[in-house]
Amino acid sequence: MECAVEARGLVKVYPGGVRAVDGVSFCIRRGEIFSLLGPNGAGKTTTVKMLATLLRPTSGDAYIMGRSVVRERGEVRRLIGLAPQDLTSDDEMSGWDNVYIQARLYGYPPGEARERARWALEYMGLLDVAGRKAATYSGGMRRRLEIAMSIVHRPSVLFLDEPTLGLDVQSRRHLWGLIRSLRREGVTILLTTHYMEEAEALSDRVAIIDHGRIIAEGAPAELVARLGGDRVHIVMGSPGEAERLAGELAARGWRARAAGREVVVTVENAAEALPRLAPLVRGAREIRVSRPNLEEVFLELTGRSLREGEEALDSFRYRVLARRIRR
Ligand SMILES: Nc1ncnc2c1ncn2[C@@H]1O[C@H](COP(=O)(O)OP(=O)(O)O)[C@@H](O)[C@H]1O
Ligand SMILES: [Mg+2]
């Protein structure tokens, strides 16, 4: 068996007609960290729910260690662990009780359930605070508690749906370390994220998902290499100036586009291109060179930024807040 997780043409149409997942196929090899990277609403959670047998596919099927998520749900559930995007731990219960009860739900007798709860909490660095109510945990601790709950039965395949959503950089990095350490124990991990840095830092392979479809798949470095070459960022005084320069460069055969105050020029090799490019540029505030990243892969494929929806939402919240303050 080559794939620990294999999705074959998964489709989910929600009642009301939303086609959330539109023919998704991929193969996650044993022991690898595989990321589904995509913006809000791309279909990541829906895909994970189908793989975790919580949602029945409209069509298609998926196999966990060769077991069908449609026809062998019981077997699949024993093989997988899921830390869902929406927290499931109980606020009013201690960290310990949350994990212990989870172990009992998996059918372990009290003694073994205690051992497993202790192991899982210790693994996630929560043993010291296990007696406290979950409600008192920080965001990072709460996410680690969810993962502790999802690993009590030592699953071979672990689904982590946006495990670092809303966490600060430090807690995020801490979690990355724990996720890597689970992989070292041989756990196959599917994680979803809309953080490009996260997918890049953690994954052996990434599938970029947008509007329910996978639009690119491969090792992060491979995907980036497909874009070809370096980027020269020319920062201008205003978007208007950037627009004008991008037009001039494009007319001379450069692959240039304006993005805000910046003109981004795609070149094979920045060191070779700069001496030819620089004389064409007037009034630049700054010129930088970068190697492209996954964010740019997404931009190139969709013409949108990964975080665009989210930023729009943030600016909406800001406007609402500003209005309230003004009143
Ligand atoms: N229970 C539901 N009923 C109807 N539409 C849904 C439901 N859950 C999600 N959707 C829609 O399906 C699409 C994919 O959602 P989701 O899988 O949550 O995306 P992601 O996890 O990538 O943000 C979105 O357009 C979302 O609004
Ligand atoms: Mg989601």
Describe the 3D structure.
This protein is α/β, with parallel strands linked by helices and 327 residues long. It folds into two domains: 3-224, 3-Layer(aba) Sandwich (Rossmann fold), CATH 3.40.50.300; 229-291, UreE, C-terminal domain (Alpha-Beta Plaits), CATH 3.30.70.790. Helices cover 41% and strands 26% of the residues. It has twelve helices and 14 strands. The strands form three sheets. The protein has a six-stranded mixed sheet with strand order 6-7-8-3-9-10, with helices on both faces. It has a four-stranded antiparallel sheet with strand order 2-1-4-5, with helices on one face. A four-stranded antiparallel sheet has the order 12-13-11-14. Helix 3 (95-105) crosses helix 4 (110-123), helix 3 (95-105) runs parallel beside helix 5 (139-151) and helix 8 crosses helix 11. It is elongated and about 75 Å long. The termini are far apart. Residues 312-327 have low confidence and may be disordered. It binds adenosine-5'-diphosphate (ADP) and magnesium ion.
